[in-house]
Amino acid sequence: MLPTRPPRHLLVCERSHARHPRSRHATLVREHACGCRVSFLIPECGLLPEVLKGTVEDIGEYYLVRNLSIHELVAHEFIDAFVKKGSCYALTYKTKIDQDNTAALLPTGKLILSVDKDTYEELGLQGRPSRYSGKKAMRYIITIDLTDASFHPESKKHTRVLWALKEKKPLEFDFLLAWDNTGAEGPTLMSYFSKNQIRALKPKITFSTLRDLQCPVLQSNELQGKAEESCSAEEHFEWLGAVLNQVSLDNKSSSFLSTYCCPEPNTVVEKAFLCTITGFIIPEKIIQLLEQLCCYFGDLKLSPWLTLTVHGFADSPVSWRENEHGFHKGGENLYNFVIFKNLDYWLQMAVGAHDDCPP
């Protein structure tokens, strides 16, 4: 029997400075539509500063709307009230990207539908075969630009899309929704969908302190690491995955779960602060958190570096920008910042087999 080949994974790493005028950190956060889990780890920290704690607690609520017909997202009342007045996000809830019809609304105003062949043919809307459905296409991607100038209420394009989604092949989902409106006046998502079954949700926040944690030694200018002096970005990324998933770093012969150990050189820190936020977390809030984490080093701190990790939804139809995302073995699409005391940072972006290379 031939050994099974592990699925392909792709990790892209880059280095910059948080205050460099050409740094891409905020742009790359914005281009990754939404996070389902955000974690930050601060070595040599036992108590979170109040400002940082306040940013975490102000991460913002989101909404779960049950049995929402997708044609309501292409109605011009919705487009004018939310899509054109801020950043509006929507994602189908508890749908499986490789089995079900799914949809996502991006802050750019693009509505992305990932549908099976039968649904595609019934809708009759223009799309393209999924890149990951094999030689015989069984899944299709439809992109509708809600902000296109030609997509106005009297246009043939709008009439056709509305007819297809409302009458020809009605599609109904449970949706997660969030809106960053930067103070715009008008209805709220709660009031707009008051006739639907809508519920406001708050992200779940957990704080914990890790004791006597083995941490890799890092040098901000050595992305590839340096023999006997520092670990590489890839080694650190693997170590961080073990820590966030509570994998033992002891490499004991009696362990049947893991033989992993912390890469060398390493050091033991007495305590490390770990915060994990789970929910429907929009990029604007992640950027605010990232900025506060950079400000953490403003006062004298023992921490040589800290990390911010964001996991995207495994069953989202997109990863970065409008890049098609597939599940395959695990649906991975995530990124991680390692921020150093001098505000140099490493950015690590990872995806699975059914994804384009991160931007």
Give the SSE layout:
Blueprint: E1 10-17, H1 25-30, E2 35-43, H2 50-57, E3 62-69, H3 76-83, E4 87-92, E5 102-105, E6 110-116, H4 117-123, E7 128-129, E8 139-145, H5 156-168, E9 172-180, H6 189-192, E10 197-201, E11 204-216, H7 233-244, E12 266-281, H8 283-295, E13 305-312, E14 333-340, E15 344-351
Antiparallel strand pairs: 1-15, 2-12, 2-13, 3-9, 3-10, 4-5, 4-9, 5-6, 6-8, 7-8, 11-12, 13-14, 14-15
Strand count, sense and barrel status of the largest sheet are: 8 strands, antiparallel
Q: What is the share of helical residues?
A: 10-25%
Uncertain ranges = 1-7
- Strand runs, count: 15
What does this structure look like?
- With 359 residues, the protein is of the alpha+beta class.
- Helices cover 20% and strands 33% of the residues.
- It is built from eight helices and 15 strands.
- The chain has helices at 25-30, 50-57, 76-83, 117-123, 156-168, 189-192, 233-244, 283-295, and strands at 10-17, 35-43, 62-69, 87-92, 102-105, 110-116, 128-129, 139-145, 172-180, 197-201, 204-216, 266-281, 305-312, 333-340, 344-351.
- A hairpin with a 3-residue loop joins strand 14 (333-340) and strand 15 (344-351).
- 36% of the residues are buried.
- This is Ribonuclease P protein subunit p40.
- It comes from Willisornis vidua.
